[in-house]
Design a protein that fits this description.
Helix content is 45%, strand content 17%. The protein is of the alpha+beta class and 115 residues long.
Length: 115
């Protein structure tokens, strides 16, 4: 109990140090909480799909440089019609779109997705 009283008296004698200490602790706790919340939402919470562990991504890669390329619609339809080891297949095409309204036009990220 004496140690606590001594600590409080010491903090009361130096208000500048006390303010910096409290601010540092508050900032550290706030940043830690924010990072944990983001990581929890992105990495640790389950995906909003039934059986998310069964989701897979399939892509085509170019032979010349190994980069992924767009899948041609006929290839997608062949995959969809002939696939036996998956329940369903969907195609996704990421793109940029121009959002036009009363304000200045704005470029946004979006995607075209099959049903």
């Amino acid at each position: 109990m004496n140690d606590l009283q001594y600590a409080l008296r010491s903090l009361r004698k130096s208000p500048g140090f006390t303010a910096v200490s409290v601010l540092t602790l508050a900032l550290g706790i706030g940043v830690n909480t924010t990072i944990f919340t983001l990581l929890n939402a992105v990495l640790f919470s389950p995906l909003p799909y039934p059986d998310p562990e069964r989701l897979v991504s399939v892509a085509e890669y170019r032979a010349d440089d190994g980069r992924s390329s767009s899948v041609a619609p006929p290839a997608y339809f062949d995959w969809r019609d002939q696939a036996r080891s998956v329940a369903a297949i969907a195609a996704v095409s990421a793109n940029w779109y121009n959002l036009i309204g009363r304000a200045e036009p704005e470029r946004i990220d979006g995607a075209a997705v099959t049903a």
